Amino acid sequence: MTPPTETPGLPPLVIGTRGSELALVQAVATEALLARAFPDLTHVRKVIKTTGDRRTDVALSEVAKAEGVFDKGVFIKELEQALDSGEISIAVHSLKDLPTVLDARFSLAAVLERAPVRDALVSRTPGGLDALPAGARVGTSSVRRARQIEWLRPDLTVVDLRGNVPTRLRKLADAATYDAILLAEAGLVRLDYLPASAGSAAETITGMPDLHVQRLDESVFFPAAGQGAIGLEIRNDDQASRTCAEAIGHRPTWLRITAEREFLRLLDAGCHTPVGVFSTLDGDELQLQARAFPETGGPPRSGSTRGPATNPILVAHNLFLSLT
Fold it and tell me: How far is CA 178 from CA 44, 71, 153, 172, 173, in A?
């Protein structure tokens, strides 16, 4: 089936997205790729407010339980409802927000080319993680980031932090509540707070010279599965939208995130499970590493493996077996 076009009588492709600045940047990137691939395609954007956007009064890890949507991605519920009703054709997600196992009515049709996968420490003082004094307060809403900070620097204090990227940066700059915060490098790059690659000099946030940045090596501070990737979710029975999504997908990113997400599935882990996993693709070889923290506390289990990039499911299975 061909994708929808401007042919009279055919509805436009409706792109669903959250309304945060980062989500809108990701929607714009998706729309630009669609316009390039299908010059005659008509598409419109629909902004949808999700549970995670609405509930900023409790820690992110508690939002699902507070809303009675446990095991459901708090940033996707309303987008999936719009998909199900036909209100939107494609839902654009930060892939790390998308649960590993989707309802049978939906599928992840494609992912766009991945941005940097690392986490970034943004602090009031230069020097990065090692320079933070004992007792310094580090803000994050991610259980994975919190557990890694507590493991790497048990002398620091983790403080809950909610809000979109600009809001979090302002909270660090304007209040004494935080000495540093943790954010995804991809979001900072996409919002032009950082250049795409680090220079030789010490870095600061663009427009906020008093906020210093350390891009944390992913082999030391493990990112989330799918971090830095934009996912395109569709209804399973919508072949026209699948055609559009697959046409703009990025195959190398797809191979990597397939392995990362399969590893999470094998662990029975969700968006708020403290697991870091990342992959590298070297020609036809896929390397996968993970660090999984017990939910009840204690040191993490770690593992690494490599295998054929053409079989990311096998590589994920071998990583699961390698955990010690």
Answer: 39, 30, 16, 6, 9
Nearest Cα neighbor of 183 from 199, 198, 201, 205 is: 205
Rounded mean pLDDT, 25-45:
96
Q: What is the pLDDT of residues 242-269, one digit of tens each?
A: 999 999 999 999 999 999 999 999 998 7
Q: How many domains does the chain have?
A: 3
- Is the model's pLDDT at 70 over the cut of 60? no
d(CA 306, CA 29): 32
Between these two residues, 72 and 233, which has the higher pLDDT value? 233
Give the model's pLDDT for residue 9. 44
pLDDT of residue 69: 47
Q: Catalytic pick from 53, 97, 192, 284?
A: 97
Distances 191 to 38, 117, 120 between C-alpha atoms, Å: 26, 15, 14
Strands 13-17 and 43-47: parallel
Does 146 share its domain with 237? Answer: no
- Whole-angstrom CA distances from 74 to 62, 63, 71, 286 are 10, 7, 9, 31
Bridge partners of residue 203, in order along the sequence: 213
Q: Output the pLDDT for position 204.
A: 97
Q: Which residues form the domain of 270?
A: 264-322
Q: Is 40 a catalytic residue?
A: no
Phi, psi of 178 (to 5 degrees): -125, 145
